[in-house]
Amino acid sequence: MPRITLDDVANLAGVSPITVSRVLRKPDAVSPGLRLRVDAAVKELGYVPNIAASRLASSRTHAIGVIVPTLYNVIFAEYLFALHEGLVAAGFQVIVVNSRYSEIEEENAIKALLGQRVEAIIIAGTHHTPLSRQLLAQARLPVVETFELSPNPIDLNIGMSQEHAGQTATQHLIERGFRRIAFLTGNLDHRAQSRFDGYRLAMQEAELPNLEIIAERPRHSSVVLGSDLFAMTHERGDVPEAIFCTDDNLALGAMQECRKRGIRVPDDISIIGFHDLEFAACAAPSLSSIATRRFETGKLAAERVLAALNSSVVSRAEQIDLGFALIPRESTAIRSYFVHT
């Protein structure tokens, strides 16, 4: 079936193609009657404007590129919701690309977005290939790196210290009397690696040995994976006193596996997660976690991109640390030591 064209709409509406184009681009600049005739023809024919052609004729695309490492993990849902809420309301289309935790795929995504002439790029992460950094630095458009802090921001960097957050979570367990503390992670991406660095730093500062009871498996983080990782740790006899899980999904899975094996949380083992997802407060027992500001990150990124696009002043590289919060709950009890006589 041949594609419906601008000429088809013009013929049905009884006007010229130029008039149809004017109605579609600036509907308020034509009479209501003319607008209704063209709109009726567009709906009847199911006409979709050629966006590529429109972009060639204009310096504006009203498109913003967003790159995330995965669409599987729920932690990016609030972030993407905030970005859409801010950008779509301002008349922009949001193009989301999944880099699948690959810097090479991220590089390809950047090339594709720049090829579509997006007006800004927002990326979850700060680790890029040298070519990606070069492309973004030379693109002459707003670039926002989010979720972590960069020692060398390309443009605007909105995030938090993942290492400090990991250190804080581990110190919380140490302060409650635990010494044999495990670190559970699924995919050791850059942010998980930074949390592990924080865990290791806290253990070193407390002069506690690294017991090499880190359960790592390159899979998407999930409740099922958390259950599997704890089962693997338990079956090889490495049951710790406490566990720092790299996100709440793993922590919930570990708690469920503990229940199956008759291990009580927090009486026998304490568990802390990361991100403070919605279920953490209502889990049984409620889950201690590190709260990250995902919605606020997306909201601020959208606001700053819109401000940059509406300004004629070239912005300088800037970093905004949104921080994090330790949320202690029932899953991390104070360690009790009993002396038997």
Outline of the structure:
This protein is α/β, with parallel strands linked by helices.
Structure, explained:
By secondary structure, the chain is α/β, with parallel strands linked by helices. The chain has 3 domains: 6-49, no CATH class; 63-160 and 294-310, Response regulator (Rossmann fold); 162-292, Rossmann fold, CATH 3.40.50. It contains 12 helices and 12 strands. The strands form 3 sheets. A 6-stranded parallel beta sheet has the order 2-1-3-4-5-11, with helices on both faces. Strands 7-6-8-9 form a 4-stranded parallel beta sheet, sandwiched between helices. Helix 9 links the parallel strand 6 (181-185) and strand 7 (215-216). Helix 6 (103-115) packs parallel to helix 7 (130-138) and helix 10 crosses helix 11. The radius of gyration is 26 Å and the shape is elongated. The model has no long low-confidence stretch (mean pLDDT 89). Residues 4-58 form the HTH lacI-type domain. InterPro entries: HTH_LacI, LacI/GalR-like_sensor, Lambda_DNA-bd_dom_sf, Peripla_BP_I.
> Are there runs of 5+ residues with pLDDT below 50, and where?
none
Mean pLDDT: 89
**So, the CATH homologous superfamily of the largest domain?**
Response regulator
Estimate the global geometry from the Cα principal axes: elongated
CATH topology of the largest domain: Rossmann fold
Domain module count: 3
| Strand portion | 5-15%
List SSEs in N-to-C order. Answer: HHHHEHEHEHEEHEHEHEHEEHEE
Percent helix: 40-55%
Structural class: alpha/beta
Distance between the termini: 89 Å
Name given to the CATH architecture of the largest domain: 3-Layer(aba) Sandwich
Number of strands: 12
Rg (C-alpha, Å): 26 Å
User: Helix tally?
Assistant: 12
* CATH structural class of the largest domain: Alpha Beta
Widest sheet, order of strands:
2-1-3-4-5-11
Mind summarizing the main beta sheet?
6 strands, parallel
